[in-house]
């Protein structure tokens, strides 16, 4: 075995910017795809351990915590037996009852800062703290970021913990484990509250670790509402607090514009000692004018002293008001030295929910000019708990941009009557019991077993038809690259598609590199390309075309795919054989065959989460460096469409004649 050089043994692994949890909107996710951890109230920290045992503690925003928490730095290194490691977790302090108490950690930090200011250099060991690990990002020389959560947790659980009073592992509970004990996620949430925890973090068991992002794979469900705030000013106290700080004036960055906005104030939750210390720090940061993009109400800032917005704190609150955007009933929790002002985002105002309808298996709704009866709306169709009602809600709201991409195209459904993970099936023929108003078209069967038979396809061209399909758990909508003509048998190709499928060892990132080249090639041939995700692993590049030949699009796409494969054989293959795909992007040109279909833009996919085939800007394609950047769920897409509109809206208006000359110089009929 080769001997490791001393310098290599002492080298601490690189810091990994932490993956962050997103608020779950008040809906604790449920289903076999999820695991649950207690939400901790401390300082987020990475514990980075060299093979020699040398340990560095790094905060969420890159601050070195090692000197501040010396008892943690030596607690695990020797036990790893010469292996490097990076653990993600939280530093916490506990009260006498063993419950995590953030205030104790804040008090300790204040004492440490005085200790350091006084010039002491020996270890600071005031108040016992613990490092609670919940993820493992590296073990030995192996980076684990691309491993699923379940595998990372398995490896973390196998690590020795010789000093559990200093370093231990946060318990994790899968949905199936809870069910085996007769418990639900809500039962676990109730237990977390009774034990003094802040709430739960739901984590998708199949998810990778995405540094620096807040994907839908980690969702936090707090029992109390807390908000990070930027200290923008203060007011002197009155009556019993005359001569000291009375309240703080708070700000945060608007989630839409990034502007610094006023959030209100906080005047409770301070000890006298904290008031004096905060006033001393703020007086050093004084400025003449307020730092907000828009002036706060005059009555709110009488006697205000403004300061540079560089300190971050945390408050607890009961309400965030709509319209004015103010935190109400606030209480101070302490400064957050582990946060930077640029990452403090104001909460979004939530519209009050409409009163739910009385429990019922079936309800009648109005969809456009039709009345429909819907059933089992609370039935989960996705492992993350996304219900049939939420599927119908998504398709109802996305209908204005989705329906134009379905119009005139016979739809093939993939139905999941028992939800994702249960039995699924393709359905071309209109289901029995379909409403008599549903428009359909009868076409010759294109399958290998058609034998001249006909298929009656649904045409989804109005809101009610889309809701009807969603009520049948038809999650996926697939369409051909042609529309039916005036004659039922006519098939007129009007779209060209390249389906980019990443082989093993590649992701949508490599697909984006191929898509960039396709963009340039299609533009050079006079076409206007559009890009969208598949909603699964890959993506598609499409263009509107005019051609007289049903076979021309497939021939053109094949020639271009083969040209790309010849130019970059290490990255691209144009052959369908699975054995040729590892490490490469397969350009599936065959989707242009009149018998084939492709997932429609804005259709859901039947995956672990309700992901969507999402149109992209070419800037997004060019900038993509991580697969998670181009994963969009139903909620994400509704927000995108509100902000960006339909990014593929122009595909019909930009139809151009398919070139007569193929990329390799051979002619094709168009």
Number of helices: 13
Average pLDDT, to the nearest integer? 87
Helix content: 10-25%
Return the CATH architecture of the largest domain: 2-Layer Sandwich
- Could you give a short account of the major beta sheet? 7 strands, mixed
Class derived from helix and strand content: alpha+beta
Shape: globular
The proportion of strand residues reads 25-35%
CATH superfamily of the largest domain: DNA ligase/mRNA capping enzyme
Helix-strand layout with pairing:
Blueprint: H1 6-9, E1 22-23, E2 34-39, E3 43-49, E4 55-59, H2 70-73, E5 85-93, H3 102-117, E6 129-139, E7 142-143, H4 149-157, E8 167-169, E9 172-174, H5 175-180, H6 185-194, E10 199-204, E11 218-222, E12 225-236, E13 245-253, E14 260-266, H7 272-283, E15 286-287, E16 305-317, E17 319-320, E18 327-328, E19 331-335, E20 362-367, E21 370-375, H8 388-406, E22 412-415, E23 425-427, E24 440-444, E25 454-458, H9 463-471, E26 474-479, E27 482-484, E28 491-493, E29 495-502, H10 508-524, E30 529-533, E31 539-546, H11 552-567, E32 572-573, E33 585-588, E34 598-599, E35 615-616, H12 618-623, H13 634-644, E36 656-657
Parallel strand pairs: 1-11, 6-8, 31-36, 32-33
Antiparallel strand pairs: 2-9, 2-10, 3-4, 3-5, 5-6, 6-7, 10-11, 12-13, 12-16, 13-14, 15-16, 16-19, 17-18, 20-21, 22-23, 22-26, 24-25, 26-34, 27-28, 29-31, 29-33, 30-31, 30-35
Helix pairs in contact: 8-9, 8-13
Domain ATP-dependent DNA ligase family profile: 122-254
GO molecular function, one term: ATP binding
Organism: Amycolatopsis acidiphila
Structural summary, described in words:
The protein is an alpha+beta fold and 670 residues long. The protein has four domains: 6-173, 2-Layer Sandwich (D-amino Acid Aminotransferase, Chain A, domain 1); 225-343, Nucleic acid-binding proteins (OB fold (Dihydrolipoamide Acetyltransferase, E2P)), CATH 2.40.50.140; 362-484, DNA primase, PRIM domain; 491-657, Alpha-Beta Plaits (2-Layer Sandwich), CATH 3.30.70.3300. The protein contains 13 helices and 36 strands. The strands form nine sheets. Strands 29, 30, 31, 32, 33, 35 and 36 form a seven-stranded mixed β-sheet that branches. Strands 3, 4, 5, 6, 7 and 8 form a six-stranded mixed β-sheet that branches. Strands 12, 13, 14, 15, 16 and 19 form a six-stranded antiparallel β-sheet that branches. A hairpin with a 6-residue loop joins strand 27 and strand 28 (491-493). It is globular, with a radius of gyration of 29 Å.
